[in-house]
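The protein record filed here:
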Amino acid sequence: MAESVDRVDIAIIGAGPVGMTLALALAGGPYKVLLIDSRRRGAWAADPRALALSHGTRQILEHLGAWNAEAATAIETIHVSQRGGFGRTLLMARDYDIPALGYVMRYRELAAALDAQLDSSRLLNDSPLIDLRSSREGTAIRLASGADTRRFAARLVVHAEGTPGNDVEITVRDYRQHAVVAEVRPAGGHAHRAWERFTPDGPLALLPLAQDYSVVFSVPPDQATQLLQIDDDGFLAALHARFGGRVRFTAAGPRARFPLALRIRQQLTATRQVWIGNAAQSLHPVSGQGFNLGLRDAWELAQTLLASAGEDPGDDAILATYARGRQFDRGGSMAFTDGLVRIFSNDLAPLRFARGLGLLTLDLLPPLRHFVARRMIWGARAWP
């Protein structure tokens, strides 16, 4: 007996924050949207990760009614410096007439705020993807549903989960660094100041989160192993050594690690398919650009589709318009983060001097500093 086929206009694969943002941005529009996730609903509730959210991301979430102000810790100042060299610069929210340059929020708190706004009738959980086949006529989707399977036909499929794989469309640059993440308690509080400290081993970021700092410690893999094996006092001593007394810490929480690489999907679209967020690109965490870029992907895709209301959402011309529109922001964000890592992750004296001169120039020339800050806040384009 043939299985029935349900028809939708747009199927979004992945109900993480990027997929949920797209679903909410399309809500109320002319399209029948289905958000599909392989996990149970609320699987993110135990996720301990912290996210750096730009002020531009806050504006998107506020527009969607999903800004969780109580869970957000404001970043009012960012202090940027390098270990073993001169030069530093300060970025301050008051220079841009905004309440904060960005915010730090736990992944689970952001996911909960987005999930609360979803239409449950347009959400399908516990449904891993078995097969997906696209043609000019549409895309056939087969999902696991318990012991059974379900079939859908979609005019457009949006891939919004996972990271770019290893097929020919993917370019990979292995930074030979791992990020060690943890939460540490600062002595005397953090005063809503974030720190970006460049060291020869890799960048080190401190992001204010509630009463603590969320640490992103980028180091070679062997050092990451050591940082996970030493006790809390040893870990705090390693942080102190890299900050040179600027910040003192009194306690450390559990640590975890993950490898760092730049992974880029060269073509954002295929026949009746489009990739956004981490499915399209994964960046080094330096300067906290990757997640915010992914949310802008979702927002811009929604605006492109809504501007073409009444047309086939999977039309090649519409998808090409979206891909062209993302080139500047996407390319600029990748070049910015990749350049920071490659320029600062070494201990060559001439480069150390040049870096110090660059940081000093940023501090002394407000227009240049404002250019960098606005890119971090709003991406390649200012909020409309």
Q: What stands out?
A: DSSP finds nine helices and 20 strands in the chain. The longest strand covers residues 170-186. The mean pLDDT is 90.
